[in-house]
Amino acid sequence: MFERTLFAEEHEIFRRSVAHFIDEHIVPHHPRWEKEGQVSREVWHEAGQHGLLCPTIPEQYGGAGTDFLFSVVILEELARAGTMGPGFSLHSDIVAPYLLHYGSEYLKATWLPKMAAGEAIGAIAMTEPSAGSDLQNIRTTARRDGDEFIVSGQKVFITNGQLCDIVIAVCKTDPDAGASGTSLILVETDRPGFERGRNLDKIGWKAQDTSELFFDNVHVPVSNLVGESGRGFIQLMEQLPQERLLQAIRAVATIEAALEWTVEYTSERKAFGQSISNFQNTRFTLADVKSKTVMLRVFVDRCIQMHLEGKLDAVDAAITKLLSSEMLCELLDDCLQLFGGYGYMWEYPIARAWADARMSRIAGGTCEIMREIIGRSLVGKILC
Q1: Which residue of 168, 200, 307, 373 is 20 to 30 Å from 236, comparing CA positions?
Q2: Same domain as 238, residue 224
Q3: Per the structure, how many domains does the chain have?
Q4: Domain match, 22 and 60 both
Q5: Are residues 25 and 112 in the same domain?
Q6: What's this model's pTM, rounded to 2 decimal places?
Q7: What is the percent of the chain with per-residue pLDDT over 90, rounded to a whole number?
């Protein structure tokens, strides 16, 4: 057996606590949240009280000051439970790091403690109707006017969009400067001119709010600039490896859970007078899924270790994201097939996981973009 060596006893103690929280505070409500299209704000407050939000943020800003492995534990347990509704990871492991690494002392002191407590929910707004993977082509602008920026534009497919209290908007502060004219600006969602659009009706991730956002001449102080003006694109590229690694972590944990569900189902389900697991085709399929899952687990764990050591670069992250998202879709499809018609029923976790999985090949950079990054690295030109 391949044993994982990443985690210490403190991580496993925390894992048990996280699993208990999910069973008690998330699983019973998730079906209702799927119908409503978003989770409750109450579960964010509860998660903050139990230390599930922003664990890696330093204690001086309200976090626990832990290592990245605590974030890994939270993400893995949410994936294993099939509860993709709470956007905790985006809030804690994507939005919060932008503030921590690039935000002013004012922004960090103002928002990170609230984010860690679940009192303020964070989102990041990159994608636009005409700019997805091509971030250099965004059209949202932030025009400087004295001590303010005036933000105008539209964003789409924004996770936590309906619930967020703050959003880090990717804007053009100099539309004529290309990537060098891109900046990150924090926008509080109670400012005049900010509007939430539809809570988008998705194929999967039904309980997670994903929204259109509109900025109609929203005035924000210059102090809301996250990092330096004109360095937004560079900051995005610096943080993308962690975002892509997070998707791989979620993917392999989901596959492991799906394999457990499938083994249990095929052992109990009868056909032609015997358990489905007695058929050679079932055993061969399960063997293939298990073998590929172990290989992916060992690889992703190595990537986590590289990230902890500061060695995971853009190409490494692209390889991780590409392989994990492709294998997630492939292996969940293999598992679902063994459920027969029941695998297509929403009440079964394999059906929900299968529907959720498809987004992994799009979000955080499409598989095509990942191939382009990897391919260009081989011929001497890296595209981030």
Answers
A1: 200
A2: no
A3: 3
A4: yes
A5: yes
A6: 0.94
A7: 91
Question: Tokens standing for 56?
Answer: 């890696």
The number of C-alpha atoms within 13 Å of 203 and in the hemisphere containing its C-beta is 10
Q: Give the C-alpha separation, 210 to 208, whole Å.
A: 6
Average the pLDDT over 161-174 and give the result. Answer: 97
Q: Report d(CA 188, CA 114) in Å as an integer.
A: 13
Residue of 243, 264, 268, 347 with catalytic role: 243
- pLDDT mean over 193-201: 97
Q: Domain containing 91: what range?
A: 9-120
| Tens digit of each residue's pLDDT (9 = 90 or more) over 282-299 | 999 999 999 999 999 999
**All residues at 6 or more sequence positions from 358 whose CB lies less than 8 Å from its CB, including other chains:** 203, 204, 329
Shortest CA distance to 252 belongs to which of 332, 168, 134? 332
User: Cβ(35)–Cβ(90) under 8 Å?
Assistant: no
Q: Which of 230, 259, 290 is the last residue of a domain?
A: 230
CB half-sphere exposure, 376, CA atoms < 13 A = 12
pLDDT bracket for residue 136 (50, 70, 90): confident
112 within a domain of the structure (yes/no): yes
Residue 243 annotated to the active site: yes
Q: Could you tell me if 265 and 347 lie in one domain?
A: yes
Residue 26: which of 85, 90, 74 has the closest Cα? 85
8 Å CB contact between 241 and 313: yes
Q: Give the separation between CA 22 and CA 38, rounded to whole angstroms.
A: 16
Using CA atoms in the order 252, 257, 263, 269, what is the torsion angle rounded to 10 degrees? -130
Q: Do residue 191 and residue 88 come from a single domain?
A: no
Residues 215 and 238 in one domain: no
> What angle is formed at CA 274 by the lines to CA 270 and CA 280, rounded to 5 degrees?
105
